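Task: fold both queries, return tokens.
Query 1:
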Amino acid sequence: MRKERVQYTSPLDALIAVAKRLSLYENQQNMDSEDFFDRYSKAQLSDAAVFIEWANDYRHYLGLRQDLEKQLQNVA
């Protein structure tokens, strides 16, 4: 499978794009991302490709959100 690298104009645009992908996973799997990631991290779910991609997107989401929160705190 070939991966594409997407560049966003801002961290907020990246966060929105990742959040949209997470929403698709949540709807397809009928589970929210936080619960999924907890179960996945505890090896309660398989290593299916969709779960690996979901976990990676969730990690990316958490990192983006943390970076944006730090930037907002520095502005306030």
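Query 1 returned. Query 2:
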Amino acid sequence: MKQIEHIGVAVKDLDVSCSLYEKLLGTSCYKKEEVKSEGVNTAFFKTGVNKIELLAATSQDSPIAKFLERKGEGIHHIAFEVDNIELEMKRLKHEGFVLLNELPKQGADNKLVCFVHPKGTNGVLVELCQEKI
């Protein structure tokens, strides 16, 4: 894994949270995007080399809606940039980690993604991200 790619934050209202983060970070949201496969709307902020992804559910049965129901708003996941997501997935499986998807899937911000089950990472949902070519 190369570096932290972004930190994902689950929010109830994307517009309200975008305003809050614009004030907090002193910068504007640079990208909003819907990821239909995950039932989520996203908004990205960049401060220095760091990125924050706000995630709001688009349906009651989306993973973010379920997360918000159980835990409320807050940090949802930490994402790591990888050079080759398929090789990294194979490595992690070999190390005994449980992946939430068997193949990389389309994520936000032009990325291929895969999630690692939080039961094997001390309760932290980990996302692998590879820039799509």
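Both queries returned. Flag for query 2: The CA atoms of residues 114 and 128 lie 5 Å apart.
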